[in-house]
Design brief:
Elements lengths: L1 E6 L5 H15 L3 E3 L5 E6 L3 H14 L10 H19 L2
Antiparallel strand pairs: 1-3, 2-3
Helix pairs in contact: 1-2, 1-3
């Protein structure tokens, strides 16, 4: 079923490219709405296990979900990761 998530730290097409490229093999087509803040990521999620996997992979790229409870230190680290992911996405 199609499911949408509000993700933090997504700033531009570079970020969106990294997310799409990194997750396409497991999740297929991913839509990222860059007109909303926080950004809305929509994709096909089959079950709770797939959602957990998606959340973990997004976090590993530096893009946690808005509803995650993360501390200030972790939040700063994830923001730094997202800058790197963004830069990688801009080169593609």
């Amino acid at each position: 079923m199609q499911k949408s998530f509000k993700a933090l730290n997504i700033k531009c097409d570079g970020c969106a490219n990294t997310i799409k490229d990194s997750l396409k093999d497991e999740f297929g087509e991913i839509d990222i709405d860059l007109t909303q803040v926080p950004r809305v990521v929509t994709l096909e999620i089959k079950d709770d296990e797939a959602e957990l996997s998606f959340r973990k992979k997004m976090r590993s790229l530096g893009y946690p979900m808005e509803d995650e409870d993360i501390g200030a230190f972790t939040k700063g680290g994830l923001k730094a990761k997202s800058f790197i992911s963004c830069a990688i996405g801009k080169t593609k």
